[in-house]
C-alpha cells in the first residue's frame, strides 16, 4: 500500500470557485494546515464521527501565525509538520485495517483524539486579544 503523501495539499472535489481559500500571504503553513484538516476529515469518517465545520479560530490560524511571526510561527510550522507525520502513517494504517475487513473505528477514534489534542495545542499559540493588548 502506498502511504498518503501530504507534500501537496489535497484538492477537495468541488468547483474551484467554491473551495475555501487560504488567507493571502500565509503560504506553506496555510496549505499544510488545509491538508492536515482534509486528512483529519478522513480519519473522522473512519471513526464514524461527523467533523464539525472549522471555526473562525481554526480557519484563521495560519494568518495569525503569519502576523505574530517569530517563535510562535516557527513552533506552528513544526507542529503542523508533526501532525502531518502522525496522520500520514495513521491513515495508511486505517486503510490497511479497513481493507483487511476489520473495524477501523476504534483506532480512528484514538487517532482523531490525538489530532484534536495536538491541534488544540497549536491553536494555543495564537495569543488572545487580551494577551496581545497587554504585551
Describe this structure in words.
65% of the residues lie in helices and 0% in strands. With 135 residues, it is mainly α. The chain has one domain. Helix 1 packs parallel to helix 4 (70-99), helix 1 runs antiparallel to helix 5 and helix 4 (70-99) runs antiparallel to helix 5. Mean pLDDT is 80; it is low at 1-25.
Keywords, separated by commas or semicolons:
elongated, 6 helices, 135 residues, mainly alpha
Separation, N- and C-terminal Cα atoms? 50 Å
Helix/strand-derived category reads mainly alpha
How many independent structural domains?
A: 1
Number of strands: 0
**How much helix is in the residues?**
55-70%
User: What low-confidence regions span 5 or more consecutive residues with pLDDT below 50?
Assistant: 1-25
Query: Count of DSSP helices?
Result: 6
Report Rg. 16 Å
H/E topology pattern: HHHHHH
Main β-sheet: number of strands, strand sense, barrel status?
A: none
User: Which percent range describes the beta-strand content?
Assistant: under 5%
**Apparent shape:** elongated
Whole-number average pLDDT?
Answer: 80
Amino acid at each position: 500500500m502506498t502511504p498518503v503523501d501530504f507534500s501537496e495539499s489535497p484538492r477537495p472535489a468541488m468547483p474551484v470557485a467554491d473551495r475555501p481559500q487560504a488567507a493571502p500571504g500565509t503560504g506553506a503553513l496555510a496549505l499544510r494546515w488545509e491538508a492536515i484538516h482534509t486528512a483529519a476529515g478522513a480519519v473522522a469518517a473512519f471513526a464514524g464521527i461527523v467533523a464539525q465545520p472549522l471555526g473562525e479560530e481554526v480557519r484563521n490560524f495560519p494568518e495569525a501565525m503569519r502576523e505574530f511571526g517569530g517563535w510562535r510561527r516557527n513552533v506552528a510550522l513544526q507542529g503542523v509538520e508533526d501532525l502531518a507525520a502522525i496522520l500520514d502513517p495513521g491513515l495508511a494504517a486505517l486503510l490497511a485495517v479497513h481493507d483487511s475487513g476489520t473495524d477501523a473505528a476504534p483506532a480512528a477514534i484514538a487517532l482523531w483524539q490525538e489530532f484534536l489534542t495536538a491541534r488544540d495545542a497549536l491553536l494555543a499559540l495564537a495569543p488572545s486579544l487580551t494577551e496581545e493588548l497587554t504585551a
